[in-house]
Structures are given as C-alpha cells and as structure tokens.
Amino acid sequence: MKLAVIPGDGIGPEVVREGLKVLQGVVPTAEFTEYDLGAARWHRTGELLPDSVLRELREHDAILLGAVGDPTVPSGILERGLLLRLRFELDHHVNLRPARLYPGVAGPLAGDKAVDLVVLREGTEGPYAGNGGLLRKDTPHEIATEVSLNTYFGVERVVRDAFERAARRPRKHLTLVHKTNVLTHAGQLWSRVVEEVSMEYLDVTVAYCHIDAAMIYLVTDPARFDVVVTDNLFGDIFTDLAAAVSGGIGLAASGNLDVSRTNPSMFEPVHGSAPDIAGTGTADPTATVLSIALLLDHQGLPEAARRVEAAVAFDLATRQSGSVSRTTAIGDRLAALASS
Amino acid sequence: MKLAVIPGDGIGPEVVREGLKVLQGVVPTAEFTEYDLGAARWHRTGELLPDSVLRELREHDAILLGAVGDPTVPSGILERGLLLRLRFELDHHVNLRPARLYPGVAGPLAGDKAVDLVVLREGTEGPYAGNGGLLRKDTPHEIATEVSLNTYFGVERVVRDAFERAARRPRKHLTLVHKTNVLTHAGQLWSRVVEEVSMEYLDVTVAYCHIDAAMIYLVTDPARFDVVVTDNLFGDIFTDLAAAVSGGIGLAASGNLDVSRTNPSMFEPVHGSAPDIAGTGTADPTATVLSIALLLDHQGLPEAARRVEAAVAFDLATRQSGSVSRTTAIGDRLAALASS
Ligand SMILES: CC(C)[C@H](C(=O)O)[C@@H](O)C(=O)O
Ligand SMILES: CC(C)[C@H](C(=O)O)[C@@H](O)C(=O)O
C-alpha cells in the first residue's frame, strides 16, 4: 500500500504521526510519502496545490491528511485552493462520516442517547460547486449569487452507495436529509433518485427529514438515524452536529471517497489544525486513527479496520475520566492494541 | 389594534385561541378578523392565498398565524404558495427568533447550559428566493439548480436591525453566522456589510462563526451567542437547533417583521400543525403566547410584552414536572397572570 501523507499545519503532523504508527502496526508493508501542503507552504511559497504535486498524489493508493490552516490565512484560500480542490480534482463524491457515541465517552446530551450513524455527504457538487458571483461589487447595489448545481449523475452515485451501505448494516435504514419543501428543484431531483434507487434495495427502509428538523432530532432522538444521505452543504452542517453529539469533532473521522476507484481516496480527521494546542502534545489522535480504519475498509482490509476500531473502543472505554492523555501515549496504546 | 388571525390547521386554531385570550387580557381593545387559509381551505377549494385575501391582510396592523399543513398536502405547496408567499409579499425581511432556556424547563443538554439569544434571520432572499430550475427533467441527464440571491439592500437592512437590537441588549454582542469560506461570493457581501455597519455601533462587539461550527457551539457553549444575524437558510437551520436546546420548538416564538412598517408583520409559533395531537387539547400554546409578546413589542407596547413574558416565565418555573397541562388551562393561567 502506497500512501501519500499530508501532515499539514498545527496539530496535523502530531496526530498524523500517531495514525501512521497504528497503520504500520496492522499493515507493516505500508509505504508513506510526505507532501508539504497547507498554510506553512502557502506562507513560504504562495503555493497551494501545484499541479506536479497533484499528479504525484494521483499515483498513490490513498491519501492521509492531518489538518491545514492557521488563523493568519485569509478565509477561503486554503479551503478553495487546497481542501476543496483535492475533493473536486480527485472526484471525492462520497464524503463518508460515521458518528458513533462510544461507551465511556461523555457526550453533551442529557441521559443516554445512543448515536450510531453514518453520513454520506455528496462531495463534488451542490452549493460547493463554486458557481456564483458578484455584480456591482462594493457598491450599495451589489448582488451576490451562489448557485447550487445538482446533477442526476452526481446524486445517483452517492445515493446508490448510501443504499449499498445501508443494506450491509443491521438496521438497513436510510434517511434523505434535504430541504425539499423550499429548495424544490434540487429537492425534486434528490427525492426522485432516492425513490428510484430504493426499488433496487427493497430490504432498506427509507425516510425523509428536512435539515432543520434533523438538527432537532440529532439532539433529541439521534437513534432514529442509521445511514444518512445528503447534499454537500447540508452534509457539512449535519456532520458537525452529529460529531458534537457523539463526543466532539476530536473523535470524528472522515473519508473522501472516489467510489469508482479512479482516483485515490483521502482520509482525514474532521477537526482542524487547532493552533491553540499545537505543540503541547495534548492533541487527541483518535479521529485520525478512526480515519485510518475507514482507509483500511476502503482498501479492502476490513479485518484490520475492525481491529483498529476495536482498539479505539477499548481505549475510550478505559480512559480515566478527567485524566489528560498525551498524543503519543494514546498513539502507542492504540498501535499496541490494534496490532496485538 | 386591528389584528388579522390565521388559525390554520391541526393545533393551529387551538393555540391561537389561547394566544388571543392572553392578548385580550393585556390589550382589551384589540380587534380580530379571522382568515381561513391553510391545508383545509386548499383541500376544499384549491386556493392558497387569493389576492383579495392578501389585500385584506395588508389592511391590518399585524397578523397572527397558528400553523398550517397536514400530511396529505404534497411538500412545497403550502410552503411556497402560502407561508413563503406571505413573507415575500409582505416584505418580512427580519425573521426574529429568540431562544431562551427558561428556568424550570428541561433542555436536552447535560448540565446547566444557559441559552439566551435572538436570531435575526433574513427573510426575503438568499436560497429561499425560489430561483433555480430543472434541465432534462426525469432523465439521467437531469440538472437541478438553486440560486441563492443576496443583495446589499437586503443584507444591509437585516444587519442594521441586528446591530440595533444588539446595542439594546446587556451583552451587546453580535455574531454573523455564514459559510464564508465556501460560499465566498455571498460570504464577501455579508462580511462587508457587517464590517461597514459595525462602524456605526462601536459599543457592539462582533464575532463570526461558520454555520457548521455554530451547530457544535449550540450544544457545547450556547452562551457564546447573544444576537445572531444570518441568511435565510442558515437561519432556518440555526433557529431549529436553538429552539431544541432551549426546550423544544413547542416553546419557540417568531416574528416575521417588515421593519420599515410598510406592511403588517406576522407572528407565529415555530412549531407546525402537529396533526398527531390535534383535537386532544394537549397542545402547548406557550410558543403562540411568546409570539404575542413579540407582536406587542413590535406594536410599541413593550410593557405589555414584558408582562406576557413574565407570565410565561412564572408559569414555566412553577409547572409540575411530568404533569400534563391542558391547552386551555395554560391559556387561562397565562391570561390571568399577564393581565393581573
Ligand atoms: C474547511 C471546509 C471547506 C470544510 C467543508 O466545508 O467541507 C470543513 O468544514 C469540512 O467539513 O470538511
Ligand atoms: C415551513 C418552512 C417553509 C419554514 C422555513 O423553512 O422557513 C419553516 O421551517 C420555518 O422555519 O418557518
């Protein structure tokens, strides 16, 4: 397995180091090549994602990204020029984001509210297409547009993968999250596709939920969700709240998948570069390690993936509440557990 | 005060009756005219909002709406044809939605997390403009677009009102919620307007928060928000979660304001018509009563508004936990408290 690694900025390199430790434990033959991308490189050279680097990234089996960004980079630069560019260039149409409240983890909700869901967020179109503009900029007559582009092609492939995954889960339940009553054009397309594809997966039950109502359910009854499929922007919002109710983005993993396997998929913790704690050795690498599990699954190594997840579950269940674990200590523990 | 009343469907008429009871207690001279709009009328006549009715509505000082809808009306019909049409025709550019966790109310969050914020959601543009379309409908080459339209005119007036309100609150803090790092065109406009208007309100502190991060903060640290200003769609999502963490949409009030007072403003509970409990006499009219308080404020009767709010606060703090209060009993109590 040839892996491209983008450690990035802030705590990125720290959590990536532990993730690789765990990966090497379960796949000793994995090879890594590091790529220097992110805020630091941009500050130094003005470069975001040189074409030559993109070409090299394509030659790998998968990509692991830590986190990029620091507060001195203007908003939008790294997002458009690096993170979203990677997703779009590498056709990462399924943004896979599981959310699970592990035993031993204190969530923000009162009572014991089980969370065990997986979101398939469309990753290459919708409001993220970058389509829109400004007219009469910087005048009192300015108009700004943002165009959400939704294609049958793009919606069908993520919906189909969502049904595939739902069919393999015990509950076999799929929820479309959208705002079909207001965004009626895109809503019609999404609804039609879900209805069509559902005909091929008769054992999967299907539900629909408006994005606003979904926010309420995530804090009052998260167990109603099993597999969730949604558009790029609603997915961004839904997955942050889903992460919050399952213990925080510090534990949230994600995979940016090209399900067709034409391009390497990319795995990254959902959290950012957390400049405030960078260098203190206290960043929690668990989200990165769980992203490694997604990577192993995608690379056809489900047994290794389950071992990594089991290691995380054991570690979270046995952590002393209130005790601070150092980044490297957690990595060492998880690597030992996963490879034992 | 001449009030147009749209009781609507399901529990709408039940909660409106109690709201009017409270209003009559504090403003005995208020006059009401009922308008029959909603799912029932649509089923009977196919009509949503006849022009003649719209003309009559305009002749009133304010509008009170209960809730419209039932599960047999296809999604989008009442939304586009009635609810959103009212907001757009009557230029309800400030959708005002306070969220407050009252003492005595059990929220879904662990621990005691104070919530006391007010959202100003833009109400007449953004992704709700209805702009978009379908190409190659019902084919495998279908494309659906949704265009978010944002004007300086539209953004400035809601941002200005948000600063006005922030300046009158003890904390004097305003947060712009958006997704400026991805929706860069609309994001630039919103950011510029907030920066510009902030120059006129030097005692108001200003923060920015991405909509996805805002979801996390609402469940981990809702006290960071005081006044929130945001676009139509983000506001829809933010306010449902804000309502959830302050005890549920059963308590959430809203005002659809034309701040210029050219058209009557409209007040409504955020909850829907709840057909499952309609007719059982158990709907909680509190959200409607709190919407009456917003109405009184808007009509220049702040003392009456404070009395209604104080009545609600007292009632919520003294309700027996677990005991079911009947709709009319709550209304009677609140009317007596507010007018005493
Ligand atoms: C950084 C940003 C562009 C990104 C997104 O909006 O997709 C992030 O919020 C995420 O969820 O991965
Ligand atoms: C019913 C629907 C059109 C409406 C909206 O999206 O604005 C509702 O969710 C609300 O928040 O008032």
Automatic annotation (TrEMBL), chains A, B:
Catalyzes the oxidation of 3-carboxy-2-hydroxy-4-methylpentanoate (3-isopropylmalate) to 3-carboxy-4-methyl-2-oxopentanoate. The product decarboxylates to 4-methyl-2 oxopentanoate. Mg(2+) binds at D212, D236, D240. It is found in: Cytoplasm. NCBIfam families: PRK03437.1 (NF002898). Residues 2-334 form the Isopropylmalate dehydrogenase-like domain. Its cofactor is Mg(2+); Mn(2+). The record marks Y128, K179 as: Important for catalysis. It holds the Pfam family Iso_dh. NAD(+) binds at G272, S273, A274, P275, D276, I277, A278, G279, T280, G281, T282, A283, D284. It catalyses: (2R,3S)-3-isopropylmalate + NAD(+) = 4-methyl-2-oxopentanoate + CO2 + NADH. Substrate binds at R87, R97, R121, D212. Keywords: Amino-acid biosynthesis, Branched-chain amino acid biosynthesis, Cytoplasm, Leucine biosynthesis, Magnesium, Manganese, Metal-binding, NAD, Oxidoreductase. The gene is leuB. This is 3-isopropylmalate dehydrogenase. GO terms for molecular function: 3-isopropylmalate dehydrogenase activity; magnesium ion binding; NAD binding. It is an enzyme of class 1 (oxidoreductase). Coiled coil: none annotated. It comes from the Bacteria.
